[in-house]
Amino acid sequence: MLRRRFVIALLALATPVAAWAPPSGNAPATVEVQAGSEVAVVTSGGLAAAYDALAPRFEEETGIRLVTSYGASTGGAPDSIPARLERGKRFDVLIMSQAGLNVLSARGLVRTGTEVDLASSSIGMAVREGAPVPDIGTPEAFVATLLAADSIGYSASVSGTYVSEELFPRLGLTEELAPKSRRVVSERVAAVVARGELEIGFQQVSEILSIEGATYVGPIPDEYQRITTFSAGIATDAENPAGARRLIDFLASEAAASTIAETGLEPLAVAN
């Protein structure tokens, strides 16, 4: 009897901290999450500030270690999320623009039914700290600021693609602005602005606010704004899908919403 109780006690100590029943048929019916396990995450810049603030709390509460990489949702840079996946890099969780995640889902790189919209973000403008803050409060003032600037920067990801390939042509200013504009690859636009290499820069608001030495001017006018949704999904070849699900649920929870909002994003999902 004593031996039987001892075995039962050992089994109790080995009980996993959580279990997950995946929403699709891409994984076994029950996947166990072991304390001390790892989850490999790659996140684009839009949600990076919020993720960095929330990650330590998740690790402390769950005992799961997060191994994190960063890269653009799109744009073709060597460290972008699609480029890393093409080279065979493996992740459990992908956090990126909804449009970028949808492309990966269509290619079979994301587990069906695991996608969750986490937050939305608007495009903002930055100048170097201490520099005059231009007026961009109206469409007319915004255009005047673009024309007056000596140099303009935009990201190599979703916001920059919109600014350079849709907004500038829509304004009829491509010929005037292209010679003094620069696509910033593998770095925050606001960081380049902070060094004085660009006079003004455009990127997701959440990617501007965390950069020291840069001043956030404000969002571009509503008439020219493009809202981007950032989402998360579990990679098809995830080695820890249960831990991945637990992280996504945490990021989509009410407990995480205030932190997401503090970084300049609008929380979208609250997990049950």
Give your account of this protein's structure.
Helix content is 38%, strand content 23%. The protein has 272 residues and is of the alpha/beta class. It has two domains: 138 residues, Periplasmic binding protein-like II (D-Maltodextrin-Binding Protein, domain 2, 3-Layer(aba) Sandwich), CATH 3.40.190.10; 102 residues, Periplasmic binding protein-like II (D-Maltodextrin-Binding Protein, domain 2). A six-stranded mixed beta sheet has the order 4-3-5-12-6-13. Strands 9-8-10-7-11 form a five-stranded mixed beta sheet. Strand 3, helix 2 and strand 4 form a beta-alpha-beta unit. The N terminus is likely disordered.
Brief synopsis:
With 272 residues, the protein is an alpha/beta fold. Helix content is 38%, strand content 23%. α2 (45-62) runs antiparallel to α11.
What secondary-structure arrangement, pairings included, does this model have?
Layout: H1 2-13, E1 18-20, E2 31-33, E3 38-43, H2 45-62, E4 65-70, H3 81-86, E5 93-97, H4 98-106, E6 116-121, E7 123-128, H5 139-148, E8 152-155, H6 158-171, H7 174-177, E9 181-184, H8 189-194, E10 200-204, H9 205-209, E11 214-219, E12 228-234, H10 241-251, H11 254-262, E13 266-267
Parallel strand pairs: 3-4, 3-5, 8-9, 8-10
Antiparallel strand pairs: 1-2, 5-12, 6-12, 6-13, 7-10, 7-11
Helix pairs in contact: 2-11
CATH topology of the largest domain: D-Maltodextrin-Binding Protein, domain 2
Q: What share of the residues does DSSP label as strand, in percent?
A: 15-25%
CATH class bucket of the largest domain: Alpha Beta
| Number of individual domains | 2
Task: Give a count of the beta strands, DSSP E runs of length 2 or more.
Answer: 13
Amount of helix: 25-40%
Q: What are the low-pLDDT stretches, counting only 5+ consecutive residues below 50?
A: 1-31
In DSSP terms, counting alpha (H) and pi (I) runs of 4 or more, how many helices? 11
Tell me the span between the first and last alpha carbons.
Answer: 42 Å
What order do the SSEs take from the amino end to the carboxyl end, as H and E? HEEEHEHEHEEHEHHEHEHEEHHE
**Helical/strand content category:** alpha/beta
CATH-assigned homologous superfamily of the largest domain: Periplasmic binding protein-like II
Globular, elongated, flat, extended or rod-shaped: what is the shape?
A: globular
CATH architecture identity of the largest domain: 3-Layer(aba) Sandwich
Radius of gyration, CA atoms, in whole angstroms: 22 Å
State mean pLDDT (0 to 100 scale). Answer: 88
The description of the largest β-sheet is: 6 strands, mixed
The order of strands across the largest sheet is 4-3-5-12-6-13
